[in-house]
Description:
By secondary structure, the protein is an alpha+beta fold. It has a domain of 89 residues: Orthogonal Bundle (T-fold). It has six helices and 18 strands. It has an eight-stranded antiparallel β-sheet. Strands 3-6-5 form a three-stranded antiparallel β-sheet, with helices on one face. A hairpin with a 4-residue loop joins strand 5 and strand 6. It starts with a strand and ends with a strand.
Amino acid sequence: MGTTTISFAAMGTDVDVVVTAETESEAAVAYAKKRIESLENLWSRFIDDSEVSRLNKNLGQIVVVRNETLELAKLALAAMEATDGVFNPFVRTDLAGYDQSFADIEDGQTPILVSAEGNLEINTELSSLQLTEGQIDFGGIGKGFAADLVAEELQQFSPTQVIVNIGGDLRVVTSDTGSSTPIELDLGQETIAVAMKQGAVATSSTLKRRWTSTTGEVSHLRDPKTGGELANNIESVSVLSDNAVKAEIIVKLCLAKGPEGLDSIALGYGCSGAALSAGKIITFGQLADFQTHTNT
């Protein structure tokens, strides 16, 4: 039994993959790196020939895409409907920051992607997409879907455990003989240790990725309807759920609804988590079932 870890940069963030397997852990992480990079080449709006770029450049035209992109589009539109627009893959292009990665934004610029109206037609039979209005950027849900997809595909290597973490969207898959893995929920002022055997964690924070713009200090988390900061009295939040796509969507809801909405979100979506609000930690759902300790 061996455990192999690989860390690299992809999808505009840091990626970590850990595989424990009887004989093929090294082959598994090599596969994971190649697969994640291939998904980035499909979905990045910073790669000229990606499928997302082709959609944005060919407004109104039918674009045949890979099945992974088709499924991501379905997830994105379903998330937009389920969250009443809190998650919105359609963005405006007339603002600074659209044509460069957040990592390249400098103080004085306004790194904001304000959501806009758009329309994306999906044709499953043709495996095609048609963007008839707006521009598209799948954002965090793409990282969540990639984590889910790769973690599931790595099961071909018969692992005891797989952990795929793409910029805080983390998916864990463990065999019946495997044990729970420790995970730290970094909320800024405190770190909460949990243990998870199956499932996913998504974390988002206004404490990171901040810039001084022409209008003052701003966060990368934006309200789809106003363009202002998305967070409603929440500085950071971590959500535990069944898969990374679901956890990513719920994180956005938590930020939008604020501390008062956390319990209803936990009840409605069957999730657990913790948030930092006004310097205090708020836990929701059944986090105590996963929690091992808290470090201040």
